[in-house]
Amino acid sequence: MNQPTRLKPLFRPGRLLVAPDVLTALRANGIPVVSVLLKHVAGDWGTVSDEDHEQNDLSISAGLRLISLYRLPDQSRILVITEWDRSNTTIEHLDDLVSDGAAREERPATSRYPVWPSASYGKELRA
Protein backbone atom coordinates (compact mmCIF):
# COMPACT_ATOMS: atom_id res chain seq x y z
CA MET A 1 0.00 0.00 0.00
CA ASN A 2 1.37 3.42 -0.91
CA GLN A 3 1.80 5.79 1.99
CA PRO A 4 1.45 9.52 1.30
CA THR A 5 4.69 11.44 1.47
CA ARG A 6 4.94 13.42 4.67
CA LEU A 7 6.84 16.66 4.76
CA LYS A 8 8.90 17.09 7.89
CA PRO A 9 9.11 20.72 9.01
CA LEU A 10 12.68 21.85 9.67
CA PHE A 11 11.72 25.01 11.58
CA ARG A 12 8.74 26.98 12.85
CA PRO A 13 7.71 29.74 10.48
CA GLY A 14 6.24 32.10 13.07
CA ARG A 15 3.54 34.53 12.01
CA LEU A 16 2.68 34.39 8.31
CA LEU A 17 2.52 37.68 6.40
CA VAL A 18 1.33 37.46 2.80
CA ALA A 19 1.13 40.46 0.48
CA PRO A 20 -2.36 40.88 -1.01
CA ASP A 21 -1.00 40.81 -4.58
CA VAL A 22 0.68 37.47 -3.82
CA LEU A 23 -2.64 36.03 -2.65
CA THR A 24 -4.21 37.16 -5.92
CA ALA A 25 -1.35 35.67 -7.96
CA LEU A 26 -1.44 32.36 -6.09
CA ARG A 27 -5.20 32.07 -6.56
CA ALA A 28 -4.87 32.91 -10.27
CA ASN A 29 -2.28 30.13 -10.60
CA GLY A 30 -4.30 27.64 -8.54
CA ILE A 31 -1.70 27.36 -5.79
CA PRO A 32 -2.73 27.38 -2.12
CA VAL A 33 -0.66 29.55 0.21
CA VAL A 34 -0.21 26.60 2.55
CA SER A 35 1.56 24.60 -0.18
CA VAL A 36 4.14 27.38 -0.59
CA LEU A 37 4.65 27.55 3.17
CA LEU A 38 4.96 23.76 3.48
CA LYS A 39 7.63 23.62 0.77
CA HIS A 40 9.57 26.38 2.51
CA VAL A 41 9.49 24.86 6.02
CA ALA A 42 10.41 21.43 4.59
CA GLY A 43 13.61 22.82 3.05
CA ASP A 44 12.53 23.03 -0.59
CA TRP A 45 14.13 26.40 -1.29
CA GLY A 46 12.83 26.59 -4.85
CA THR A 47 15.07 28.21 -7.43
CA VAL A 48 17.54 30.03 -5.19
CA SER A 49 21.19 29.95 -6.22
CA ASP A 50 23.45 27.14 -5.01
CA GLU A 51 25.10 29.58 -2.62
CA ASP A 52 21.75 30.61 -1.10
CA HIS A 53 20.71 26.95 -0.90
CA GLU A 54 23.83 26.13 1.12
CA GLN A 55 23.33 29.21 3.29
CA ASN A 56 19.73 28.17 4.04
CA ASP A 57 20.85 24.69 5.03
CA LEU A 58 23.37 26.21 7.45
CA SER A 59 20.87 28.82 8.65
CA ILE A 60 18.47 26.20 9.98
CA SER A 61 20.84 25.17 12.74
CA ALA A 62 22.56 28.56 13.12
CA GLY A 63 19.32 30.48 13.53
CA LEU A 64 19.74 32.82 10.57
CA ARG A 65 17.29 34.16 7.97
CA LEU A 66 15.87 31.62 5.51
CA ILE A 67 14.97 32.52 1.93
CA SER A 68 13.09 30.61 -0.77
CA LEU A 69 12.30 31.67 -4.31
CA TYR A 70 9.51 30.11 -6.35
CA ARG A 71 8.40 30.74 -9.92
CA LEU A 72 4.65 30.52 -10.50
CA PRO A 73 3.15 29.04 -13.68
CA ASP A 74 2.53 32.58 -14.98
CA GLN A 75 6.33 33.16 -14.62
CA SER A 76 6.01 35.66 -11.76
CA ARG A 77 8.33 35.01 -8.82
CA ILE A 78 7.55 34.94 -5.14
CA LEU A 79 10.03 35.34 -2.33
CA VAL A 80 9.52 33.64 1.04
CA ILE A 81 11.58 34.91 3.97
CA THR A 82 11.63 33.55 7.49
CA GLU A 83 13.38 35.86 9.93
CA TRP A 84 16.37 34.74 11.98
CA ASP A 85 14.32 34.63 15.20
CA ARG A 86 11.54 32.66 13.44
CA SER A 87 9.02 35.32 14.43
CA ASN A 88 7.69 35.96 10.91
CA THR A 89 7.57 34.39 7.49
CA THR A 90 6.78 36.89 4.75
CA ILE A 91 5.67 36.06 1.22
CA GLU A 92 6.13 38.84 -1.35
CA HIS A 93 6.34 39.19 -5.11
CA LEU A 94 10.03 39.24 -5.93
CA ASP A 95 9.28 41.25 -9.05
CA ASP A 96 7.94 44.03 -6.80
CA LEU A 97 11.17 44.05 -4.79
CA VAL A 98 13.84 43.44 -7.42
CA SER A 99 13.25 44.09 -11.09
CA ASP A 100 15.58 42.57 -13.66
CA GLY A 101 18.13 45.12 -14.83
CA ALA A 102 16.62 47.96 -12.83
CA ALA A 103 17.69 49.50 -9.57
CA ARG A 104 15.72 48.23 -6.61
CA GLU A 105 13.75 50.73 -4.62
CA GLU A 106 15.14 50.80 -1.09
CA ARG A 107 12.58 50.12 1.61
CA PRO A 108 13.18 51.20 5.17
CA ALA A 109 12.91 48.62 7.93
CA THR A 110 9.57 48.66 9.73
CA SER A 111 8.03 46.48 12.39
CA ARG A 112 6.12 44.58 9.70
CA TYR A 113 8.81 44.36 7.03
CA PRO A 114 12.44 44.10 8.06
CA VAL A 115 15.20 45.31 5.76
CA TRP A 116 14.89 43.43 2.47
CA PRO A 117 17.65 41.32 0.99
CA SER A 118 19.99 42.65 -1.63
CA ALA A 119 19.40 42.31 -5.36
CA SER A 120 21.52 39.14 -5.35
CA TYR A 121 18.50 37.28 -3.97
CA GLY A 122 16.87 37.78 -7.36
CA LYS A 123 19.32 35.31 -8.86
CA GLU A 124 17.77 32.04 -9.83
CA LEU A 125 19.24 28.77 -10.91
CA ARG A 126 19.06 28.45 -14.65
CA ALA A 127 17.69 25.13 -15.86
Architecture blueprint of SSEs:
Elements: E1 15-18, H1 20-28, H2 33-41, H3 50-62, E2 66-71, E3 77-82, E4 88-93, H4 94-97
Parallel strand pairs: 1-4
Antiparallel strand pairs: 2-3, 3-4
List keywords for this structure.
127 residues; four-stranded mixed beta sheet; alpha+beta; 4 helices
Explain what the structure shows:
- About 15% of the residues have low confidence.
- The chain is an alpha+beta fold.
- It has 4 helices and 4 strands.
- The chain is globular and about 35 Å long.
- It has a domain of 84 residues.
- 28% of the residues lie in helices and 17% in strands.
- It has a 4-stranded mixed beta sheet.
Helices and strands, in N-to-C order? EHHHEEEH
Mean pLDDT: 80
Total number of β-strand segments? 4
Strand residue content: 15-25%
Our Rg estimate from Cα atoms comes to 14 Å
Record the strand order, biggest sheet. 1-4-3-2
List the uncertain runs.
101-119
Largest sheet: 4 strands, mixed
Instruction: State the assembly state of the protein chains.
Output: single chain
Spatial shape: globular
Class computed from helices, strands and strand pairing: alpha+beta
Beginning-to-end CA distance, first to last residue: 35 Å
Helix content: 25-40%
Quickly count the helices.
4
